[in-house]
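Service request form, structural biology core

Requester: graduate student, group of Dr. S.
Request type: structure prediction, single chain
Budget code: on file
Notes: please return the result as structure tokens.

Sequence provided:
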Amino acid sequence: MVFTLRRIASLLGVVLCLSCLALGCQLQRKTDKLTIESVLKQDSWEANRAIMKAAENSGNLEIGLQTGQKELDSRPDNAEARIMMARLQTISGLPEQALFTLEPLEAKPTPAYELEKARALLRRGLTAESRPLLEGLLAVNLDPMTQRAVRKLMAICEAQDGQHQKAQEIFRQLLVEREEASVRFNLGYSLMASNKYQDVVIVLKPLLDTPQFVEARYLAAAALGRLHNTKEARGLLEGYLSDAEINRLLGGKK
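Core staff response, request fulfilled:
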């Protein structure tokens, strides 16, 4: 049975995620009710910032991007807006645009600027360029939230460079500190890439019944296939993929 990460990725679109939103898996929040009309009515940075934050939290990336562009059109020197806009662009799959958005801040770099530049570079697969930024950030005193964000990106950087043992150590420590679905998924993906299939199933089990993280189900099925447990793998995929897609993924095995 041919059951490779490349085949899984091509069929399912699964990639190491830079955040929950990178996979479209952010939990929806009922309080974040955003409409195009609400975007058009706002004109202050305080209002636009609130909309952009709510858009990121709820997964309404299009509204977040529209609001960010409107803000930068009105106030192009707003550094915080550029940082937030770049993050939204990266998690929307637009890292080149994110880097362009950040360019005006390059003369006076801040930790927030370096974090988002590293995120965009990682999304482009440029680990050699993102690593020095992340290492520099790890060497300075940062607030706990920013430090955690840097460590998550460093783990992804290690994984993209094939240093899966280092990546897994960081991911596991992050999970000890606080449960986070995107970290758990990325740990599972790194374990899959290093052929630790039973560990993949164990690590991803808490995510299997999370509708917002269906990719975890696909990855766990892939690991089960490698363990020749095609019956359980098929059970994870039924109702989520068509029979034809399941047969493609499992090589026609029953």
